[in-house]
Amino acid sequence: MESIIYLIPIAFFVAAIGLGAFIWTVKSKQYEDPKGAANRILIEDDDKPLL
Amino acid sequence: MDDRGCPSGLEIAEPISNAADPRAFVKTQADGGYSLELLVRGAKCAGCLGRIEGAVRSIEGIEVSRLNLSNGRFTAEWHKKDLEPRQIVQNIVDLGYGAMPFQSQTADAQKDKDARELLLAMTVAGVASMFVMMFSEPIWIANKYGEMGTGTRTLFHWLSALIALPAGAYSGRPFFKSAWAALSKGHANMDVPISLAIILTAFLSLYATANRGQHAFFDAIVMLEFFLLIGRYLDHKLRQRSRIAAQELLALQAVTAQRLNADGTTTSVAVGNIETGDTLIILPGDRFPVDGIVLDGTTQGDFSMITGETAPVLIGEGFEVRAGVLNISGRVTYKATKRSDDSFLSEIARLIEAGEQSKSKYVRLADKAASAYVPVVHGAALITFVGWLLVGAGFEKAIWNACSVLIITCPCALGLAVPAVQVVASGRLFKSGILVKAGDALERLANVTNVVFDKTGVLTLGQPHLVNQSEISPSDLANAALLARASRHPLARAIARLAGPGKSVKSANEVPGFGIEGEIEGKKARMGRAEWVGAKIDEQSETELWFKLGDENPICFKFEDTLRKDTPKTIKALKDMGFEVEILSGDRKAAVEKAAIEAGIENYRAELSPFDKAARLDELKAQGKNALMVGDGLNDAPSLAKAYVSIAPAAAADASQSASDLVFQGDELGAVLEAIKVGKLAKARVLENFYFSAAYNLITVPIAILGHITPQFAAIAMSTSSIIVSLNALRLYKAKK
Question: Which end of chain B is more exposed for a tag (fewer CB within 10 A), N or C?
Fold first, then answer.
């Protein structure tokens, strides 16, 4: 049972990261234009490799 | 890239001169920059997106150029002071898309914020319920097999509380707010028992945990909120779509006009600032913004939006025009006799508003269910509490059992019953090209008894259609199209549409009321009325267009506004289903009679004003009939708003689309039939879901009252009922047509 001392905080931490990431996507308005986002990947004009 | 269905690829753009001056819509940002919002129509694919954003970005000084493909809003931002905003609009219009400056409303920004908050609340509740489950599962199992010590169990309860209480408080805000608003006005809504259950459960679970008790219901709090919030979010999304359509109407009205000053200069004024007595210049392609009298110039007016009459009307000096008439061919100056607020368009707008208010009095099924449900739930919980006290149980046990009644009856299934069905039904209709703007429209569709049609653009295609194409050689058509492309006359546009995109003559001269002339391959060409091109006939018809090239014989193009292909079939099907069908039209009697006979409708009224149409709908309402209105013109807008439920084709006037509950695309009137069928199916599913929820409560409530509900049972029963309701809604998608 000692393991839960470590496991529970880890579980909290992992869930917090996931939730935090989701809140960030909502706050930065990433769900305002789902149709646009789906189509934007097809535009090649100024597509540069990242590295 | 696939360009099908995009204006730049196929359609011929109208020669637009945009009446709205975008300068009036530019906003100054906090950092000294400028921004402009436009409503872009016709953008559908990645190609459109790239072209539109690229075209604006190519203007020097533009920093942000972004189109939201989901709602058609375009935003441009820049810092350069001398940048001409009209250029932004022009660049988009040049690509063949419609672009209108647009002022976003603060109320809308608030609604967008509400949607984001609902989404956040829903996710927080979902994540929290999964997390709490991680602690409550072991407790349930341990309670059964007795392998967990009191210490571990209490630790797990405290950990559940640590997650469920803050998450529950956060995600519960939509319910608390609404419950409080209702209570402070002295009545109760469905959120009152929900809030009560959440708060009571939280306190009792805390109390049990503090006393190292066996049961705590922390998982129930967040799970309840999660299921209820799914329903709320779906409902909100559905309403958001209808708001976007309403914004387009506002954009249409927010235009400017050119005022001629005493010293001969012109200034652009917002339509709202036009005073009576102002002299205005109207160019071809613009609409007359207010009622007035023509001072100078001749042109033809397109009255189809106002009266439904298809043939253009000659407008000359002294003619009294109404706001909303489209100037087809010539430049005119005219004197405003009314302000914008008193003009025809505003009268229509007021009628629409009045109609919408009467419509909002409709009590939605869900609200009806809620008003019956709330007192029953409260009553049952109170009886449980008092009953347990009377039989001698302690205060704690009595309130626990009352609380489990509140939890088990919590309308998860009821909350999902309507939105789930409406979302699936709208999805199915969307696939057949029908856009549902208001969720409750589906409910109202199911109760329709009468179907009222407008003629032009509804029973008919609304566009003149060449009927003697077989008598015309392709080369003649191609030559005629060269001239036709330079004109805005409806018949000329029909030829241009038929011939497809191509060149037009370099210098064309349009003579209002007669026709258009120009030069084709060095030869003089004329198109227009018979006597103007030199053809000898007995009687001139408004639906004929003559074309003469050089010395050749004049050719006659005959047009008709033909019925939609499936109109007679649809009318017959509607009659077979027992609906009373009638026509209300603003067009001439002969034209209406002909269409009525072809379509197979016995009841028709012609030459009606928009107000007559609205009055007829009031009459039907007074007789206790529920009328479905199908209309497209601006003259139908008040009736569309007044009708019990209304449908407009996608080619309809913007105001009519905003005023109606559903919009259908494509050339088939059968969409009306499909909408009614889906409406009936949807209502059947909603009722099934209600019955199921009622049955579920009938079984579980007695068990809860008797105090036998365990946490496991509550959790499983709640989720299964919600899932069953959602699955039942999905059945609608597959139901046969």
Answer: C
